[in-house]
Amino acid sequence: MTALPEKIRVVEVGPRDGLQSETQLIDSATKIELINRLSSARLPVVEATSFVSPRWIPQLADAEEVLAGIDRRPGTDYPVLVPNLRGLERALSAGVREIAVFTAASEAFNRKNVNAGIDESLDRIGEIAAPALKAGLRIRGYVSCVLGCPYEGRVSPDVVVDVARRLTQAGCYEVSLGDTIGIGTPAAARGLVDAVAAEIGVQRVAVHFHDTRGQALANVLACLQAGVATVDASVAGLGGCPYARGATGNLATEDLIYMLHGMGLETGVDLDALIETGLFISRALGRHPVSRLGQIAVLAAEQDTI
Ligand code: HMG
Ligand code: MG
Q1: Cα 157 to ligand 2 centroid, rounded to whole Å
Q2: CA–centroid distance, residue 80 to ligand 2 (Å)
Q3: Ligand 1 pocket check: which of 52, 80, 160, 208 to mutate, most ligand atoms within 8 Å of Cβ?
């Protein structure tokens, strides 16, 4: 087995990926407190919001208010999603230092998500990247549906490798491989990461697992064994809807950190503060945390009150 990377950079995506599909109204103050608590828990990256069309993602229509309200902690980066030049202008006005651009390895999914095919979306990303780099921004890239697509089924690893290469050529310092529907298993995840790493270098590869089928932690471990040192996750396992079949959130950050620390890998994250943050946002949403560590904390609190 290859030695595991000693330090793992955890990218917290809860305020963006986690909240974007919530149907209930979440006020800006709650989002701001969530982000501040996450940075106080010393997450090195907190993806804060999206400058996408509010027609498409109404939940994040308050991106400006949220960014204006947060305390920017030294040591934490606050990237935001940007789909087009309009989004870039908004992000620049909000004083953003890092953006994330996104496309997919599936034509059908990409059309549903950004109303464009893969080539067209990569052209758009090229239009965004040039002025963004000129303005001194760092650019992270996402590829969705890397291990399967809800519309097309099987996705060819060759397409993922090609899209990852083109994102890197467009100026992305890192490409996050998104298992959007949580369909992958460890051997497939490892095989894909090896293929992408052979093209762009493993230091540029991040992984992003939704936990729909309970495979996310196992998939992460398989990718760490391939040398991946950046992992996306979402506090309290936010994302999707617990009442909608098949729509679940990302791997819960608390459970990820527990595994990494248990294996002696450094993250810099304060796990207790993170668990508290998961309880905070779960209370605000009126539900139990999806993370196992959050559930243990809830049970322990209930037993204390008996
Ligand atoms: P479109 O409808 O083709 O574009 O959407 P449009 O230019 O016709 O714009 C439609 C309306 O939105 C117009 O307003 C625009 O002005 C406005 P109207 O004239 O109708 O009043 N508009 C904007 N407003 C504010 N900011 C903007 C902006 N752009 C347009 N930036 C578009 C194309 C790309 C804009 C749209 O499809 C979109 O915003 N999509 C975003 C979808 C999204 O955010 N999906 C979730 C993120 S990806 C993800 O979750 C996967 C990931 O987690 C990895 C994984 O898990 O796989 C990253
Ligand atoms: Mg996602």
Answers
A1: 18
A2: 13
A3: 52
Task: Please return the burial class of 111, using the count of CB atoms within 10 Å of its CB with bins 0-12, 13-18 and 19+.
Answer: middle
Classified as helix, coil or strand, 209 is strand
pLDDT digit string, tens, across residues 99-132? 999 999 999 999 999 999 999 999 999 999 999 9
Encoding tokens for residue 248?
Answer: 């679940």
Residues 6+ apart with CB under 8 A from 276: 37, 41
Contact 275, 236 (CB under 8 A): no
Instruction: Retrieve residue 12's tokens.
Output: 């917290």
The pTM of the full predicted model, rounded to 2 decimals, is 0.97
Query: What letter represents residue 138's amino acid?
Result: R
Annotated catalytic residue 223: no
Q: Kindly list the domain boundaries of the chain, sorted by start residue.
A: 9-305
Ligand nearest to the CA of 93: 1
Residue having the nearest C-alpha atom to atom 43 of ligand 1: 113
Three-state DSSP class for residue 142? strand
Confidence category of residue 208, pLDDT binned at 50, 70, 90: very high
Phi-psi region of 150 (alpha: psi -120 to 50; beta: other; left: phi over 0): alpha
- What's the CATH architecture for 9-305? Alpha-Beta Barrel (3.20)
Ligand 1 first shell, C-beta below 6 A: 17, 20, 50-57, 81, 83-84, 86-87, 90, 102, 113-115, 142, 144, 178, 180, 208, 210
Q: 6 C-alpha vs ligand 1 centroid, how far in Å?
A: 38
Residues 235 and 279 sit within 8 Å (Cβ to Cβ)? no
207 within 8 A of 230, measured Cβ to Cβ: yes
How many helices (H) does the chain have, and how many strands (E)?
A: 11, 9
